[in-house]
Design a protein that fits this description.
single chain; globular; 138 residues; 2 domains; alpha+beta
């Protein structure tokens, strides 16, 4: 990759707290991506980790310690095996499923809870969803 291209990518984020949020292309799983056209796509967080820290050993993956898939802050990234990364994801999923209220304080009841479909799955508060849809239509 050319130096001018590398410098362009190194500036393609904004700050949200301690996270460096990727402003470029986002894939369907919510991870930032770099490349395209005549070049191979690479994950933005892998690019930042290797640029700021060290190369990633073959067969290893990057875990977002902050749990934000768009974050490219090398301090929030850790090289781990796929097995460890999956165990951590399961732990986070279990913690989320144990919650009794959404982040706005509405109780998760059968009447107020929608199961999300798709790759990420999860659940959503119907009250919050209705408010978001109403605001979007305005």
């Amino acid at each position: 990759m050319k130096i001018t291209t590398v410098n362009k990518y190194l500036k393609n984020y904004h700050l949200e707290g301690d996270c460096w949020i990727w402003d470029g292309w986002i894939d369907r799983l919510g991870y930032g991506g770099i490349g395209g056209g005549n070049t191979k796509h690479i994950k933005a967080h892998r690019f930042f980790y290797e640029h700021h820290r060290e190369s990633i050993p073959e067969g290893m993956t990057i875990d977002h310690l902050c749990r934000n898939r768009r974050c490219v802050n090398p301090e929030h990234l850790e090289v781990v095996s796929s097995y460890v990364n999956k165990l951590r994801a399961i732990r986070v999923r279990r913690a989320k499923s144990a919650k009794t209220h959404c982040f706005r304080g509405h109780e998760y009841t059968p009447e107020n809870t929608m199961q999300k479909t798709g790759i990420l799955g999860g659940r959503e508060c119907r009250i919050c969803r209705a408010a978001r849809d109403h605001n979007r239509q305005r």
